[in-house]
Amino acid sequence: MDLIENYKNDFIAYLNEKVEVKQPINLYEPIHYILQLGGKRLRPVLTLMTCEIFNGEVKQAFDAALAIEVFHNFTLIHDDIMDSAPIRRGQVTVHEKWDVNTGILSGDAMMIMAYQCFETYEPSTFKKLMLLFNTTSLQVCEGQQFDMDFETRTDVSIPEYLKMITYKTSVLVAAAMKMGAIVANASNKEADVIYDFGLNLGIAFQLQDDFLDTFGDAAVFGKQIGGDILENKKTFLFLKALEVCNVKDKQKLIELYTSNKHNEEKVKEVTALFERNKLKEITIQEIESYTNKAFKDLESLSISKQKKEVLKNFGLSLMKRTI
Fold first, then answer.
1. 10 Å Cβ neighbour count for 200?
2. pTM of the predicted model as reported, rounded to 2 decimal places
3. Which domain holds residue 91?
């Protein structure tokens, strides 16, 4: 995927040019830190790629891509505080490296910085981008609240879970793609279709994240393996297990998720239960299902077959990722 690497490298160069450490150091250094931790840069790459697919000037999409990436990393700082997470992308989280108050304030500043990125666009484009960004930002907050609510509920359904990950994760992927289309002056119809493509791809991406949290390699994944299990999160794997397990395994799973155990033994027991009930295979099948839905969305786009293949190959690469 040389094309993806080119987008990523060009974006990182722009990010490094635009985001600098300045006074007050304790506000801007944590921002620089989180933005330099790496990551897949999935969302900004999608903004740039989509802009070019709709024959736009890629350079014009850099600020929209930067807005998406700054906002995404702002949510990570605050999510890590809420989850008391010690590691992010294999490194110490912002609130652990500094403190909680610094994490909150630096995150707040990043939200404002994301809005400032749109100031370079002419009025009609600015309005479209802002309307989309505002809707998306609020949905991300709603998704986070759903996620927090689910921690204390014992009756979460799979449709509810899918709505939560759609809001918390998928809408930002979809918005990243639609922003690229908006910058390229694509038609409203085309922009809506690429949004739907991103939405389904985003759901597949989050399901893959759930999968890797349990079955990934900690050294490669960059996060603590089994973190969702330790936090008793009602992921797709957990909810599906309740559907397919026998009575004994179901009772054992509920017992483990309502216990105060927070150790490696709990992770091992839950993982073993998932494996013997074929949750590995079931989750992979679900990931493939949403990826195929995304591919179906592409059929109605009036772009070349070659450009559709670029999007398909990107989707397939997400299905095979290990980070």
1. 23
2. 0.90
3. 2-319
Q: What is the pLDDT of residues 185-202, one digit of tens each?
A: 999 999 999 999 999 999
Alpha-helical segments (H) within 84-170:
94-97, 100-116, 123-150, 158-165
Residues 67-91 as b/e (b if ≥16 CB within 10 A, e otherwise) read bbbbbbbbbbbbbbbebebeebbeb
Q: Token digits for 55? A: 């024959």
Record the tokens describing residue 109, joined without a space.
């500043």
Number of domains in the chain: 1
Residue type, 62: F
| Residue 303 backbone phi and psi in degrees, to 5 | -120, 165
The H or E element containing residue 92 is strand 91-92
Cα distance between residue 283 and residue 168, in whole Å: 19
pLDDT > 70: what percent of the chain? 97
Alpha-carbon gap, residue 188 to 185, rounded angstroms: 9
10 Å CB burial of residue 261 (0-12, 13-18, 19+) is middle
Selection from 206, 138, 136, 204 nearest residue 176 by Cα: 136
pLDDT tens digits, 288-316: 999 999 999 998 898 999 999 999 988 88
> Residue 233 sits in a domain of what CATH number?
1.10.600.10
Decide: 184 and 55 in contact? Cβ < 8 Å.
yes
> Encoding tokens for residue 319?
């299905």
Q: Smallest Cα–Cα separation from 311: which of 11, 47, 49?
A: 49
- Give CA separation, 28 vs 11, 44, 72, 118, 212, in Å: 20, 21, 16, 20, 32
Q: Give helix 188-215 / helix 171-183 axis angle, nearest 10°.
A: 150
User: Cis (ω within 30 of 0) for the bond into 24?
Assistant: yes
Binned at pLDDT 50, 70 and 90, residue 4 comes out as: confident
Burial class (CB in 10 A: 0-12, 13-18, 19+), 28: middle
Q: Which residues contact 115 (CB under 8 A, 6 or more apart)?
A: 67, 130, 133
